[in-house]
Amino acid sequence: MNASIITLWTIFYRFFLFGCVSFGGPAAHIGYYRKQFVERDRWLDEESFARMVALSQFLPGPGSSQVCAAIGYRKAGAVGATASFLGFTLPSFLLMYALARFSAELMDLPFTLTLIHGLKLLAVVVVADAVWGMAQRFCTNRLQWGLACFSAIVLLAWPSLWIQCVVLLIAAAIASRYPQGGAQPVEGTLLRWPLILFGLLLLLALWPGAGPMRQSFADFFQTGALVFGGGHVVLPLLQETVGEAMSADRFLTGYAAAQAMPGPVFTLAAFLGVELHPQSPLLGATVATLAIFLPGILLMLGFYHAWEALASRPRIGAAAAGINAAVVGLLLSALYQPVFISAVRDGADMGLVILGLYVLRGRQWPILGLIGLMLVASVGRFYLG
């Protein structure tokens, strides 16, 4: 078998596994990526990973999916980005599609909720590990520790997307005043084809046209191009998109289910696509999902090389280091809200989190082993009361 095909299959398979178990939102997803692709597989170094995360904070679209596509692109170009995106998104897409087509009753079963709760505890462990590991790498002096703490304190007190952007800009401005030499310059320019494709699709979305499927593409693409932040931010835009075509109860059922699913919350678009196009449910789900994800991913790929080149300049590199430190604080705030407070309900849950941290960092268990531990422990608690 061709080596490139093996590489693409590896990318798809790794991200598909993450898509099946990655509960906890973007912060948890980034933690999974870091543990697997930076520490274990060494597909990229810590600095490159941090720059991906930092860039995703300034672009519209789902941040963890943008980082996912960037990792795939770094490994195997545009086809690698496609493989990583499809692998990570496919599990939650299929679950949301099945939920819209059939029934939400399975999600309400006590045993199902128990499994989901175990995976939420897994997310606490993974995010805590990511915060610790990134802090060790990116908070190496008093300034960087101060920026990380400043970021965490502000975002814990005022958890807002706009506050997050302001905090990152302040961190960049402060850190840029203390440039350090020694960085090797990196060549890189804007990658044109993703930006050209983004522009053409945006024109198509804005151009008046007839047909319900065309309108769905336009609505969801515009939503994906406008939303900065995670699933909570996209909620009001999607509510406006579906308008009176769907009852508020049905919309909120889909949104609640998306919160309980692994993978990106933006796959709520699959649920909405089925509801909006009952005569062509699979096509409707596919069009809506691709339309909402494409803007952010195309922009990520378009700016990726230029961002890498900018970050190699002393002052810009210092600013990027400040952003990296602030991202540590951002992840720390996300560890508390929503990851920790939505998962840890009592002392026994906290005990499982501590056990998970021990086997992950102290015993170097792989992620799949940790998943099994959390699921078995949660099921055992379920049956033992």
Automatic annotation (TrEMBL):
Entry keyword annotation includes Membrane: yes
Subcellular localization: Cell membrane
Transmembrane segments: 12-33, 78-99, 111-133, 145-178, 190-208, 282-304, 316-336, 367-384
Pfam families for this protein: Chromate_transp
Protein topology in the membrane: Multi-pass membrane protein
InterPro entries tied to this protein: Chr_Tranpt_l_chain (IPR014047), Chromate_transpt (IPR003370)
Keywords: Cell membrane, Membrane, Transmembrane, Transmembrane helix
Family that this chain belongs to: Belongs to the chromate ion transporter (CHR) (TC 2.A.51) family.
Protein name: Chromate efflux transporter
Natural source organism: Ferrimonas pelagia
